[in-house]
Amino acid sequence: MKFKSHLLAFLLCAGITTVSFSQSSKTDVNKDIDVVRVYEQVVQEGYGTPFIYENLANAYYFRNEYTQALKWFQKLFETEKNASPELTQRYQQTLKAVAATKTTVATLDVDGK
Questions:
Q1: pLDDT for 44-78, tens place per residue?
Q2: Residue 48 within any structural domain of the chain
Q3: What is the pLDDT of residue 106?
Q4: Is residue 73 part of a domain?
Q5: Cβ contact 61:69 at 8 Å
Q6: How far apart are CA 64 and CA 86, in angstroms?
Q7: Residue 26 falls inside a structural domain
């Protein structure tokens, strides 16, 4: 009788462990998809929307690729007149970053370095 209870406890424990490990090892199918490339392809095919422009601008902004972010912010503000204050602030910061980058490049060209 003692053997049966130990065997039952072992099988129960093994079953719970198996279930918990199988659920934790599921992979995220979408993690390998580059959303920026997908959205740019959609825009290239002529289906750009303010939603897509905003997502592209934000994606480039948070990647610190301000020249690309500026391009999509400008496209967004051409199509969407009522932007949130948060987007307007990001746009202004993007303008400053692009201007600073141009100034740095111009300074390096003048100094010959």
A1: 999 999 999 999 999 999 999 999 999 999 999 99
A2: yes
A3: 62
A4: yes
A5: yes
A6: 17
A7: no
CA distance 45 to 10: 59
The predicted model scores a pTM of 0.65
Residue 91, amino acid: Y
Are 57 and 73 contacting, i.e. CB atoms less than 8 angstroms apart? yes
Q: Is residue 6 part of a domain?
A: no
CA dihedral 89, 91, 94, 96 (to 10 degrees): -70
Domains: count for the chain:
1
Range of the domain at 82: 35-113
Q: Give the whole-angstrom CA distance, residue 64 versus residue 68.
A: 9
Give the CATH number for residue 72: 1.25.40.10
How buried is residue 7: exposed, middle or buried, by Cβ count under 10 Å (0-12/13-18/19+)?
exposed
HEC string of 91-110 equals: HHHHHHHHHHHHHHHHHHHH
Helix (H, G, I), strand (E, B) or coil at 1: coil
Distance CA 65, CA 58 (A): 10
